[in-house]
Design a protein that fits this description.
The complex is a heterodimer of chains A (309) and B (662). By secondary structure, chain A is α/β, with parallel strands linked by helices. Chain A contains 16 helices and 7 strands. In chain A, helix 2 crosses helix 3 and helix 7 runs parallel beside helix 9. At the A-B interface, loops of A face loops of B.
Chain lengths: 309, 662
């Protein structure tokens, strides 16, 4: 059977976020979600394009939607929220005749028909769901306390993204709960990490990412699960810079949610690629194992202990 | 036939974009028109005098006035025509203001269209016949829907004026939102202390029949003679026996029922009286929680009731009341803050609505007037108020200002500082709207005398701090141009007004209009604020739009005044513009009977067994549906007969022919 779902990796999945790409593909395959790469895909335009020229941003994204259509995909999944935002924005704005005309001029060919771009999280949720994941779990993440951090654009703006709750998203929570993890009540699920400000104005990033990491610590999380390559970089690679700026000494692992899922699904190391993380996950897994082996040791159940209200 | 035509300038409203003199000149050429003129203001006294004088001098049979919408001045001109000795239905109006002058600046084409409309009106008038209204008796009783402060006030005023009143309240007690308030602004007087006497009066007045826990099921009839079916929900207690002693409430073992009167901040029993001042002071069983009704066992209340009032087998009952007029006073609901994810969407127990906080402040409330936060019962030391929750927010489809939240927020902040002197109160606001008597001064007192800290800006997020248990309120201070965070113990959301649930359905039953948000539409926003477009149905209070207590009470008295005026007459005149059956044409198919939405047509059997349709004149509303349903054109709507409408169409089409030819 040929796949009906196109897979658009996005540039960072070929470099800094290779482990996101690898673990996403591995999880989807393990869960029986068939997909095939959009052939000859190119950069979605990302932040640089739309900060300079909205038509250029539209054309760069539309080129990839055209590639998807040519390959017969009416639905495309991408792991990267920024790519998703670019693809969905272009697709929505192509409904405006004036915008479409200018994009077509830049493309040199007619704009593609409507393509439903979704996150790989959404594809996993809709095609496997918590039950589907639970059925495939081989090594449950018992005892692992996870703060699920969705980032600010995965579900927003709500009218455009049209998936999950924009203020209190729950899909990652449910997927990782199905993997046996213990999900902490994390209030900063959709806070901004500082994003690309890490380059021009570091102190914005360190303040915002510092707040997220500190909240995860307060909530008693062993790790912060993420869904965005840029969030992951700020929280993990730049955790030292954050610590330096905030005076903290946090050592919080920041795996992609798909890496945690891949672990639970019992996939081999080369499909999980924990070695790519700057802050190693092992101490968190160690803590989880210790907790799982003597459940009553902590006294009250952690969920009650860390109830926020 | 001798017809006169008057073209109105309406100052510059019409004359600026229509050549009124040219329209008058054209009208002089129309058949039967013996006189045509233009006038600066046809509706003015000189305008009407000219009209009357011309009718007498030229012995006119009918008049056309081309001016504004008939909704403005049709009545004015019909009266003028009548004063000059003509039948009031020998008058036609052409709307050349709203339908012409106000919608286009093209003077040439406007003039052509105005001429067409006048030609159509003249042709219709040539087919008009004098009609005579009939008079009918009126019911000197009024139905008031909703027993909040507006409904109570309207009921008392109507009863005082000598009318019998039927007061219908959806809940188990009258009193409405005002009975839940602790204090009222800007005087800080006890809400239920000022409302209570009125509630007692309404309960004891012999002219007022109170149906509590009841809803309007069906409305038929017309002004002067409405027939209303009222569904009385089962209370499972015989109120004619219940003395309101409260013994049942003490013994009821089902004690985990959310207390709706206390906004579910506390629990109550399955049987009971909603609050101490309730009117009627009678017990009601909450069927969803009663052990006897849900599981078939218990019966504690039945054993303890000294008067044997408990009736587990009670069912809903429908009663019919005949009334001459209806006042709608169904009030408002408050915005459901669970739609606001940024404020926790109801997940945080210490984020409460303003109405729940009102109950927490009240001495008869769940915390006996001591402010305690719901999560742990501790006294909050920092309370943050957020205004405009569900008001002035286009993203929530609530673009309107609710009007009273600024004031009650100031009141609640003052009371907070009063109850807990070492507390801090913050108000996040967009603008302060304090445009009532003594209101601005009141807000100033909150700020200056009580030290309430006002922060101009919206709150972006509320999240709990896992370590301190406090709620971190993050927002903008747009005056200082920076972000602020307040660690609060309690957050109060100033939820705005929205239309009462079921308001559109009630409007359909009453055949009145409602706006996009479900608020009932007044007949004219400035000049007919308590009337609706259905004669005999009036509005009082916040069901027409968000209002505070003084405005609601004022509108209630206004509506009562209108009803007393209407029902001061012994007889009312019926509109003769109703359906009429030509018995010689009727084939008795009965289609009209089935299609009439008002039940105004019945089939009459003749001696030979055949049937003929018959219109019940007092019930017919003149909608014309029967007329278009009749396969043999036997039913005609008077003043809108086929020949009259076709005359208009022919006049219009003839003009088109001429235009296309030229």
């Amino acid at each position: 059977m040929t796949a009906t779902l196109g897979y658009y990796p996005g540039c960072s999945q070929t470099g800094t976020a290779a482990e996101y790409d690898i673990s996403t593909r591995a999880c989807m395959a393990a869960l029986g979600i068939e997909s095939a790469d959009v052939p000859d895909w190119t950069c979605c335009g990302s932040t640089p394009a739309h900060t300079v020229d909205h038509f250029l941003a539209g054309a760069l994204a539309a080129r990839n939607l055209t590639q998807a259509r040519k390959a017969g995909f009416s639905r495309v999944a991408t792991p990267c929220p920024s790519c998703l935002s670019a693809l969905r924005t272009a697709d929505a704005r192509l409904a405006e005749p004036a915008y479409k005309a200018e994009v077509e001029r830049l493309l040199g060919h007619p704009a593609p028909e409507h393509v439903d771009a979704v996150s790989t999280m959404q594809a996993i949720w809709e095609q496997a769901g918590a039950e589907g994941v639970r059925a495939h779990v081989k090594k449950p993440l018992t005892g692992l306390r996870v703060a699920c951090y969705y980032g600010c654009i995965l579900n927003r703006p709500p009218d455009l993204m049209a998936f999950d709750d924009p203020e209190n998203p729950v899909v990652m929570d449910e997927l990782l709960r199905a993997c046996g993890a213990e999900i902490v009540d994390f209030p900063f699920k959709t806070e901004c990490c500082g994003a690309a400000f890490a380059m021009p104005k570091l102190n914005i990033m360190t303040r915002l990412s510092g707040r997220i990491l500190d909240m995860a610590r307060k909530c008693g999380a062993d790790c912060v699960a993420v869904a965005c390559p840029l969030c992951q970089m700020n929280l993990d690679l730049r955790q030292g810079q954050v610590n330096a700026a905030t005076g903290n000494d946090l050592r919080l692992p920041v795996p992609y949610f798909t890496q945690l899922m891949a672990l639970a699904l019992g996939l081999p190391d080369e499909s999980v690629r924990l070695d790519k993380l700057v802050r190693p996950l092992e101490p968190a897994l160690e803590a989880a194992r210790a907790r799982a082996s003597k459940p009553a040791a902590g006294g009250v159940a952690p969920k009650e202990a860390k109830t926020c209200a | 036939m001798r017809i006169g035509v008057m073209i109105c300038h309406c100052g510059n409203n019409i004359a600026a974009t229509v050549d009124v003199e040219a329209v008058a000149a054209a009208a002089r050429e129309f058949p039967d028109v013996v006189f045509a003129t233009d006038h600066m203001y046809a509706c003015s006294d000189p305008g009407q005098k000219t009209l009357e004088q011309t009718i007498r001098d030229l012995k006119l049979d009918g008049v056309v006035v081309a001016s504004c919408s008939p909704r403005m001045h049709e009545v004015t001109f019909r009266r003028a025509v009548e004063r000059a000795g003509l039948n009031r239905y020998m008058f036609e109006m052409a709307n050349i203001r709203e339908h012409v002058a106000w919608i286009s600046l093209d003077r040439k084409r406007n003039t052509e269209k105005a001429t067409d409309l006048v030609r159509m009106a003249v042709e219709k008038l040539r087919h008009d016949r004098p009609l005579t209204p009939k008079s009918f008796d009126v019911q000197k009783r009024v139905l008031i829907v909703g027993g909040g402060v507006a409904g109570i006030q309207a009921a008392l005023d109507c009863a005082d004026g000598g009318l019998d009143v039927v007061l219908v309240e959806r809940k188990a007690s009258i009193g409405g939102l005002m009975s839940q308030f602790d204090k009222t602004f800007p005087t800080i007087d006890c809400s239920v202390c000022v409302l209570g006497p009125k509630m007692v009066d309404a309960g004891q007045n012999p002219r007022i029949t109170l149906h509590a826990l009841s809803e309007v099921d069906e409305v038929s009839g017309y002004v002067g003679n409405f027939e209303v079916k009222i569904k009385k929900h089962a209370t499972y207690v015989d109120w004619s026996k219940c003395t309101g002693c409260g013994a049942c409430q003490e013994k009821c073992p089902s004690k985990k029922v959310p207390d709706a009167f206390n906004e579910n901040v506390s629990l109550t029993t399955a049987i009971g009286i909603p609050f101490p001042q309730a009117i009627p002071k009678r017990a009601t069983i909450n069927a969803a929680y009663c052990l006897k009704l849900t599981k078939g066992k218990c019966g504690a209340c039945e054993k303890v009731c000294p008067t044997g009032a408990i009736a587990y087998d009670m069912t809903d009952e429908v009663v019919t009341e005949k009334v001459g007029a209806i006042i709608v006073a169904t009030g408002i609901d408050l915005f459901d803050h669970r739609k606001c994810g940024e404020y926790g969407a109801g997940r945080y127990p210490d984020v409460v609505t303003s109405i729940a906080y009102e109950r927490m402040l009240s001495a008869s409330g769940p915390t006996a007037g001591h402010i305690k936060r719901p999560s742990d019962g501790r006294e909050p030391k920092t309370v943050v108020f957020i205004s405009c929750v569900g008001s002035r927010d286009r993203s929530l489809n609530r673009p309107y200002c609710s009007g009273f939240c600024c004031m009650y927020t100031a009141k609640q902040a003052i009371l907070t500082r009063d109850h807990i002197p070492d507390s801090r109160a913050y108000v996040f606001y967009m603008d302060i709207r304090a445009n009532g008597k003594g209101y601005e001064e009141f807000v100033r007192r909150a700020q200056e005398e009580y030290g309430v800290e006002y922060v101009r800006g919206r709150v972006a997020q509320i999240h709990p701090d896992p370590e301190t248990g406090k709620l971190i309120v993050r927002g903008a201070d747009t005056l200082l141009g920076r972000q602020v965070e307040v660690a609060a113990d309690l957050v109060v959301l100033a939820v705005g007004a929205e239309a009462s649930h079921g308001a559109p359905e009630l409007a359909e039953k009453l055949r009145i209009s409602y706006d996009a948000y479900g608020f009932f539409m007044e007949s004219h926003p400035k000049l007919r604020p308590v009337e609706t477009n259905t004669v005999g149905v009036f509005l009082a209070g916040a069901c027409q739009g968000p209002k505070d207590i003084p405005a609601s009470v004022a509108q209630a008295s206004a509506a009562a005044g209108k009803v007393l005026g209407l029902l001061s007459k012994d007889k009312l005149e019926s509109d003769p513009q109703i359906a009429q059956v030509a018995a010689n044409r009727c084939i008795g198919c009965g289609k009209c009977e089935r299609t009439c939405p008002f039940g105004a047509i019945r089939m009459r059997e003749l001696r030979d067994g055949s049937k003929r349709a018959e219109v019940v004149e007092t019930v017919c509303q003149g909608c014309g549906i029967c007329s278009v349903t009749c396969p043999v054109r036997a039913i005609q709507l008077q003043n809108f007969t086929d020949s009259q409408l076709l005359a208009e169409v022919n006049a219009l089409c003839r003009t088109w022919d001429e235009t296309t030819e030229s």
